[in-house]
Amino acid sequence: MKAITRGSASEVRSRAHPGLLGRPHAETLSCQALREVENELSHPLFHGVPLGPTLNDHLIRDLFNGNGDWRWRTRWLNRARMARQWLRPQRSSHTDLPPHGRIWITWLHSAARLTEMWLPVLDALEGHRCAVLCGAPGVSARVPVGVSRIEWDQVLSYEATGWRTEYRRCRPQWAARLKSLCRRYNLPAGAFELFALTLMIASRNVTNCIAFLEAARPAAIVTDYDRNQQWSCIVLAARLLQIPTVTLVHGVMQRDAIGYAPVLADRVVCWGELGRHKLLAAGEAPEKILIGGCPRLVRDISASAVDERAKLGLDPARSVVMFATSPEWQRLELAELFCASIEILGFVSGVVRLHPSEKLATYSDVVRRHSRVRFVEGQGTSLDESLVSADVVVVHGSGVGSDALVKRRPVVVLDVDAALSGHNEDLVERAGCPHARTADDLAAILRRILLDEQYRLQLGSTAEEYVKEFCCAFGMESARRIAGIVSRLHASGGAAGEGDAVPVASVR
Q: Could you give the CA distance from residue 90 to residue 157 in angstroms, rounded to a whole number?
């Protein structure tokens, strides 16, 4: 049976690309198909917990975005990893737990975007009331002094016999359902092994999380993303134990809230009305959705343009155009188009800022062909440092586009397709950003933005209307709203109450 794909048959095109690994899969799965896969693999329940949502990272990256690694080598490695998980499950112990009744913050990694999000929230929640679950090395060093913390690896403690007994019970049904899904959606070779391994790890992690939460007894859990591979396990375990949970929104949402819905936590705090409408359209209950703004975003830029341009070795007399990449299958093609447009213009400096998950080596061929354009890795670079030197920002599906509008920077969407979707559609249709499909298009649009002041003012006016709908509060104002929502959820035992804003006095 043919895979269900995004758009009509005439809109679907091959996802084959030199940047993909293994056999290119001709078509990526639709949002509807991904949710059907998730629902199917949520049965049978493991210790009373559905594990389908823990597959979200792989469903989005590998099947929706088309970035799966389907090499035979990887397929056999995944089989070996399953054998290792069975024979030598990872163990540690729950030592030095913070006192019971803390509000637990799950902080996934140490990238600037999450650091800038969590620090204001911890301040508003009064850090001594909280404890931080650190998802990766480097997070602990970012946590303020005096705030309790524990590493994710320390959560991985359980009695192996009990896990194996429950896993043996569930595995045959998961395997049968996986084989059926692989046939139904024509999934690539290797998908069975990938998702079988992911379910195995998730079953182990859920076992860990149940034991950990029973020992830690948190008052509530607040997460940066309730559907990633780690935090989905702890949120699902908390739901089983009736511990209140809140998830923040860590990035921009597409029209169907793909990747964000179904929401696993008791409440989701989105940035503004635009996000709320998308979650409602995806089927979320109105009372589950609260509006709290984005604590990592502020309207002004604190960094110095002169200093940042000097760091990049840019000519201070030239205008600067920055392209923010996104880890999608067509990223090399888009980077090539951007570099070509910079060479057409001649009088501007071009900078390509990689997504934090990407490495410079991925773009080595493009870098070699376009020596005039600077390529910089995004890991560890703050939003202000990235945007302060840019006079214009170019994006394709990246949340940096809306971030740039918040910072009052003109934005251009680079997309070779005439029909837009996802965040590109929001930026063009709602925010009024120009849409370029070729290098010549982009060069012409950039020339007009840089040389026509009236056009820049027009773009800025439309963008301001979009920003009001996109995000209702920024910085500490947003953090106080989130703290109020968490406090009310805890006080009511899981019901956040009416309204989306809380007076400051009620937070502390």
A: 8
Q: Which residue has the tokens 């390509």?
A: 352
Three-class SS of 42-89: CCCCECCECCHHHHHHHHHHHHHCCCCECCHHHHHHHHHHHHHHHHCC
- Residues 192-218 have a mean pLDDT of 94
DSSP β-bridge partners for residue 267: 246
pLDDT at residue 494 greater than cutoff 70:
no
Q: What whole-number distance in Å separates Cα of residue 50 and Cα of residue 38?
A: 9
Rounded distance between C-alpha atoms, residue 399 and residue 486, angstroms = 26
User: Are the C-beta atoms of 404 and 411 separated by less than 8 Å?
Assistant: yes
How far apart (Å, rounded) are the C-alpha atoms in residues 76 and 84?
13
Q: Where are the alpha helices (DSSP H) in 142-190?
A: 152-155, 160-184
Q: How far is residue 139's CA from residue 76's CA, in Å, rounded to a whole number?
A: 33
C-beta of residue 121 within 8 angstroms of C-beta of residue 482? yes
Pairwise CA distance, residues 298 & 146, whole Å: 26
b/e code 128-164 from CB counts within 10 Å (16+ = b): ebbbbbbbbeebeebbeeebbbbbbebbbbbeeeebe
- List Cα–Cα distances, 323 to 113, 114, 352, in angstroms: 18, 21, 5
Residue whose entry in the numeric block shows the structure tokens 């090399």: 332
E strand map for 138-272:
148-151, 220-223, 245-248, 267-270
Q: What is the pLDDT of residues 271-289, one digit of tens each?
A: 999 999 999 999 999 999 9
8 A C-beta contact, residue 374 and residue 351: yes
pTM: 0.86
Going by their DSSP bridges, the two strands 289-291 and 148-151 should be labelled as: unpaired
Cα–Cα nearest to 135, from 57, 19, 252: 57
Q: Confirm if 31 and 19 have CB atoms less than 8 A apart.
A: no
d(CA 416, CA 344): 18
Q: Dump pLDDT digits (tens) for 37-91.
A: 999 999 999 999 999 999 999 999 899 888 889 999 999 999 999 999 888 765 6
